[in-house]
Metal-dependent hydrolase (Hydrogenophaga bisanensis), 273 residues
Amino acid sequence: MTHLPVRRLLVDLDAPVQRHWCGGDPFLTAWFNALSMSFPVGEQFFIDSVRQGLKALPADRQERFANEVQGFIGQEATHRRIHGLFNARIAAHGLENTWEPRAKARLALMTNADARHGLAITAANEHFTALFAEWMLTHQQVLDGAEPRLKSLWLWHSAEEAEHKSTAFDLYQALGGSHEWRVRWMRRVTLIFLTDALRQTIHNLRRDGTLWRLSTWRSGWRHLMARGGLFRESWVAWRAYFRRDFHPSQQQSTASEDWLRDNANQYQRVGAG
Ligand SMILES: [Fe+2]
Ligand SMILES: [Fe+2]
């Protein structure tokens, strides 16, 4: 069992956010904004899936997971609340969230499905989030030009994603979820996630009037595809998910713990945590 403390991030998200808040880079700003737009609906689905998964376990096996699930829910609920505030700030830039309604419609189809489907979808998304988190924490210079409060927001979220990346996966395994369905959902989630993320990024750039600048595409290439870029760096770790003996804890690093230790003044632990 993993202990997952809930932390209240001590940042003010009432103040306006600059239009190109990520170091004046329209691409990076649009990309992060797109991801943030997906979090409130996505993280609610993860919470519901994990809660439902825990209930589906026989009573005598629930105890082992109960604390971890509570921590997972506390962390994701905090993320969605904070990103909701952030999303309200960027909506003032004239952006439109088209990802959320698409995701809501798709996830509604899962309402009465076996708990293992929701967990497999959550575990796949959590693998994605963990890859992204690791990249963020090991490439913090990407956020160097951002306001400190926004840098903290993204790194705090990344650190906690790394902490709880095994929860949905372990519940899925405990419920006897198969390898076949796990990788099938990963293929679907990959396609859906990448399509939605790129679609929303392009939509943000179009509304921002910066879609057709050469510098925008250069930044996109540099930060996603080039050496050191997110996709290039994460490819091998993404593929590992398809191995039969894969477990998220095999991809451990100290980046999350390091950030949490070095930035303890940025947050407050909630409750006994
Ligand atoms: Fe999260
Ligand atoms: Fe998560």
Notes: The first helix runs from residue 26 to 56.
